[in-house]
Amino acid sequence: MKCVSCPTGQVHDVASKMCVVLLPNAVNPDWISATTGTKPAPTANDRPCPTTTPFYNGQACISCPALFDFTTQACVSCPAGKSFDAKTKTCVADKPNATNVAAGNFIGNIVAGANDIPCPNATPYFNGANCIPCNDPTPLFDVASNKCTVCPTGTTYSSATRSCVKAPPNANNIPAIKDYIGPKPVASPNDIPCPDTTPYFDGSKCVSCTAPSPIFDFTISRCSTCPTNTVYNSNTHKCDPLPNLTNAAAPNYVGTIPVAQATDIPCPTDTPYYTGSKCINCQDPTPLFDTVNRVCFVCPSTATFNPKTHLC
């Protein structure tokens, strides 16, 4: 007989008088990054746990879903806001995984989950893989398709319903406008015309113009009326001054006609006589116009009209 040593990795057990395998007694060094607490200094007698159960809790080798704490010799979770990364064997900051509801400008409904991590304000929308911004010409985020979009023509975004709704009118209904003054507007591609019944757009709503302000003034965008002593001209869409003087070329007047001033406007030839408020024509049986009383009349039966002197 001769003395021999136990094979490598085994020691002599006095009780059984046999060589027995040494059990692991230390954390696997490949997993040292997945630990917390004060790490023990390695020694020559360390026997690392296997990679499948890399942590030694003082009695056996165990595995942990995240970290192993040397102080308590138990498994612990990653800090809030971090998750365990098996590749690096460390806790890394959680990546955003949800649209930032506070950003607004999204179409559809977002139901917040307990594990949601909202995207940052600069890139608030989550497209299933990354956080992105939505800028013009597609400033809205469609929750259903996870893509930036824009409301269809004729609609506008409603922040109340988180949807595209029919846009309100924003322009004059040019074919329907009739009585107006000022430059007639020109239609543009983005116009949503007012309805025929209220064809004028005053900058905030559609209106119609009725008495006492029956004319729409495009220079001030509101219903108006012509100034005193003027009348609306539907052909020129202007307020023309009213006649204020009997037409001197009219033949059948009695009396005298005041000398016209620079601002005077004689009545037209078909209604040449001015009554003080309007122009009229005088016909039988009162074919003459009295310039003093401003009424139509006829000479007394004992007199006749002299067209040269304009007297009876």
Q: Can you count the beta strands?
A: 28
Widest sheet, order of strands:
3-6-7
- Give the CA-CA distance, first to last residue: 176 Å
Low-confidence stretches: none
SS summary, helix count: 0
Q: What is the structural class? A: mainly beta
Q: Kindly report the oligomeric state of this protein.
A: single chain
Largest sheet: 3 strands, mixed
Provide the residue-averaged pLDDT. Answer: 90
Q: β content, as a range?
A: 25-35%
Q: Give the SSE order as H and E letters.
A: EEEEEEEEEEEEEEEEEEEEEEEEEEEE
Summary of the model, kept short:
By secondary structure, the chain is mainly beta. It has strands spanning 10-13, 18-21, 35-36, 55-56, 61-62, 67-69, 74-76, 82-85, 90-93, 106-107, 125-126, 131-132, 140-142, 147-149, 155-158, 163-166, 180-181, 200-201, 206-207, 215-217, 222-224, 230-233, 238-241, 253-254, 273-274, 279-280, 288-290, 295-297.
Q: Which key features would you list for this structure?
A:
312 residues; 28 strands; mainly beta; 3-stranded mixed beta sheet
Description:
Strands 3-6-7 form a 3-stranded mixed β-sheet, with no helix packed on it. The mean pLDDT is 90. The chain is 0% helix and 26% strand. The radius of gyration is 50 Å and the shape is rod-shaped. With 312 residues, it is an all-beta fold. The chain has strands at residues 10-13, 18-21, 35-36, 55-56, 61-62, 67-69, 74-76, 82-85, 90-93, 106-107, 125-126, 131-132, 140-142, 147-149, 155-158, 163-166, 180-181, 200-201, 206-207, 215-217, 222-224, 230-233, 238-241, 253-254, 273-274, 279-280, 288-290, 295-297.
